[in-house]
Amino acid sequence: MVDHSWMRESATFSRPVIAEIERAARTGIYDIRGFGAKRRVPCFDDLVFLGASMSRYPLEGYRERCDTRVTLGDRFASKPITLDIPITIAGMSFGALSAQAKEALGRGASLMGTSTTTGDGGMTPEERGQSKYLVYQYLPSRYGMNPEDLRKADAIEIVVGQGAKPGGGGMLLGQKISDRVAGMRDLPAGIDQRSACRHPDWTGPDDLEIKIQELREITDWQTPIYVKVGAARTFYDVTLAVKSGADVVVVDGMQGGTAATQDVFIEHVGVPTLPAVRQAVEALDALGMHRKVQLIVSGGIRSGADVAKALAMGADAVSIGTAALIALGDNNAQYEAEYNKLGTSAGFYDDYQDGRDPAGICTQDPELAARLDPEVAGRRLANYLNVLNLEAQTIARACGKSHVHNLEREDLAALSIEAAAMAGVPLAGTDWVPGSRL
Predict the structure, then answer these.
(1) CA-CA distance, 139 to 161, in Å (whole number)?
(2) What pLDDT is recorded for position 417?
(3) Who contacts 387 (Cβ-Cβ below 8 Å, separation ≥6)?
(4) Within 13 A of 92's CA, how many CA atoms are on the CB side?
(5) How far are the Cα atoms of 94, 208, 262, 291, 306 from residue 406, in angstroms, in the given order?
(6) What's the pTM value of the predicted model, to 2 decimals?
(7) 299-to-21, 109, 200, 280, 359 alpha-carbon distances in Å
(8) Extended strands (E) in 321-437
(9) What is the DSSP letter of 59?
């Protein structure tokens, strides 16, 4: 056995870097993968809550209520939606996911009285049938889009950008373009499909305003209109979305997941969720629209603590994608042997684009997809959502709040200078907010 104890690994050319250089030299093509950013960036873990003691009184968990309901889209829509919990399921397409996985997301969300979202490629009957509240994504590709499905939706989300790839389009490789997926997208089966990075019929906020008006006419002004942006120039993007007439703005940080895109995009484009939340709230405050236009935040939400911190910073709700897939069974150790055959391991699997997901979630292979029982997986998702909600309530009560929306930035402290500056909250033990002009 070789003694490695004296060897010094390069911080610049680490083994993963060397492996990627070798892979690029061997294949001549960039790396494509799913999942989200794997680099460490300042995140909600870098914030803590200041629980109540003398200056504030906590609520008694067994006797005093802490509400979690949230109403989305009451700015212009005549039928806003009211969710029982402030946690929604993010858009993930049929194509990227199996029909069974889409159905499971709908079942799990409905059990907890919250919404799920379609994704690129249209609306499946299974998803609509099992979703109490279904948000229909309106994307640049227009794959699967039709006025009938728009009218079946409980809300419409215009996707301008995605946290994992702001400025970039989508991709669905040929091995996942089954006959059914191809039919819904009006594309040939088995051929790689690329989604456009911008909407074909508009080039700026004036055109976005026109598009929102068109969608309101199609839905008789009943359906809330969301606008989703990838976190980059968040203050200006949120400002333009609100001025264009959005009922709800969705901001997706760089930790947000994807089914497939270039690794270099995932790791090097966009900003973390933490500063994006602050900038989005600042934009809403500047317009006098905070809480009038609702803010949904996504990108790396994993626990009730993350939920509570996003709400304390000013969000109205959060959205989860990767965490929801893990709750369904993605990267589960029961498939370790099959992950090993793919050259990876449970917890590391990110080749969603290949369509060989042993868990039956990110695949169109009929045999693999059949492994996922939508009812069982839906109950697992509902259990997970319930835990997130209970954890957020627990923290809110500890801070003396009777509604999770009463959490505020003053309840938070930061554990690092970077997090304090990005979140706009004081460094723990001080009243110093780096970068503050006060």
Answers:
(1) 9
(2) 97
(3) 304
(4) 35
(5) 37, 32, 40, 12, 16
(6) 0.96
(7) 28, 18, 26, 14, 23
(8) 412-414
(9) P
